[in-house]
Amino acid sequence: MRDIEAVAPAERTVLQRLLGAGTVWIGVVLVVLCVVFSLIRPDAFPTRFTLQTLLIETSVLLVLSVGMTFVIITSGIDLSVGTVLIFAGVLGAKSMEWLSPNEDATGAGWGVIAVGLLLSVAGGGVWGLLNGLLVAKAGIPPLIVTLGSFGAALGAAQLITGGVDTRTVPEKLRDSLGFGTSLGGVPNLVLVATAVTVLAAWVLHTTRFGRHTYAIGSNQEAARRSGIAVTRHLVLVYLLTGLLAGLAGFMNLAYFGTTTIGGHGTDNLDAIAGVVIGGTSLFGGVGSVVGTVIGVFIPSVLKKGFVIAQVPVFWQPIAVSVVLVAAVWFDQARRRARDRK
Fold first, then answer.
1. Which of 81, 176, 212, 286 would disulfide-bridge 281, Cβ 3.0–4.6 Å?
2. Is 60:251 a contact under the CB 8 Å cutoff?
3. Cα 324 from chain centre
4. CA–CA distance from 13 to each of 8, 16, 17, 338 (Å)?
5. Which helix (H) or strand (E) is 182 found in, with range?
6. How far apart are CA 19 and CA 11, in angstroms?
């Protein structure tokens, strides 16, 4: 792992380490945003309802962004996660319909739901595996590969459905994963996203797989010469991203009760923005899952706060873009500072 602030750690105090960690500053920005919106609308923003809806609305994007974190740390990119999410949701929904009487999955049981989940995740995994093979084995730039799969996955979803959203989603799925709560009122979607995030953080920061991910992003050729199976590892990273996009597609299906084919045009960009705002470098080798969690919540809080404060919706993408550009500028400034040392 290449930590750009890790210069002679023994000579730095705990406070200096905290101030030098980009994640801390990103967290401060998130807290400031929450405070500002709470002051503007104390009756509406700092409420349990707002917190709950904010967490639910961010859960699906967080699962997408966790996979994207691994890809970007390897200095790659995946522009296809939004449409892979759509394809996975379509595959899950249609499979549950095909297994139900009269192709109406509204009353389907847990067996049919399990098949839908399995096919959704597998469908996302197929796109991820294809992306990984083309990037790692064929040597095609990830930008081109995933741009191609972006269009292909959306086209495949439209071919399966005829371009019409599937709306017969099992009630058991909606009542449990979609709107159900556990542990004293925590939405089940949030629990799933939390479990995925914690597991991914453990893999990235404590296992050999995570160390190899950082090493490949820092210097791919050096990683290869040190004995790391770079090609296989990159395939696995893109496969992981596809699997998580498939899971996100099934979560989206459970929450909305429809495949929402036309509703995810910016999901890939939102995921990339959240990861980069969270401190993961587009140049590879630097990043953390914790930073991604904070980075994903900054655009979400901005959007929610603007709605509550009745700011015109056209300001939302402008504000998110400003934060994104500022995050990239900050990343480049840190890299230049490191290179001068």
1. 286
2. yes
3. 15
4. 11, 5, 6, 18
5. strand 181-182
6. 14
Cα–Cα distance between 2 and 292 in angstroms, integer?
17
Considering the entire predicted model, what is its pTM?
0.88
Contact 130, 83 (CB under 8 A): no
pLDDT tens digit string along 206-263? 999 999 999 999 999 999 999 999 999 999 999 999 999 999 999 999 999 988 888 8
DSSP 228-254: --HHHHHHHHHHHHHHHHHHHHHHHHH
The predicted pLDDT at position 5 comes to 42
Give the phi and the psi of residue 274 in degrees, each rounded to 5: -60, -40
CB 276 within 8 A of CB 328: yes
Query: What are the residues whose beta carbons fall under 8 Å from the beta carbon of 245, sequence distance 6 or more?
Result: 63, 64, 67, 80, 81, 84, 85, 88, 124, 127, 128
CA distances from 192 to 187, 195, 212, 277 (A): 9, 5, 26, 23
Task: State whether residue 186 is helix, strand or coil.
Answer: strand
**DSSP string spanning 315-339?**
HHHHHHHHHHHHHHHHHHHHHHHHH
The Cα–Cα gap between 31 and 16 comes to 20
Residue 8 DSSP one-character state: S
Listed in sequence order, the DSSP H helices in 80-187 are 81-98, 110-132, 142-161, 171-173
The 10s digit of each residue's pLDDT in 153-212 is 999 999 999 988 888 899 999 999 998 999 888 999 999 999 999 999 999 999 999 999
Q: Is 311 helix (H, G, I), strand (E, B) or coil?
A: coil
Q: How far apart are CA 52 and CA 63, in angstroms?
A: 17
Task: Check whether 141 has a pLDDT greater than 90.
Answer: yes
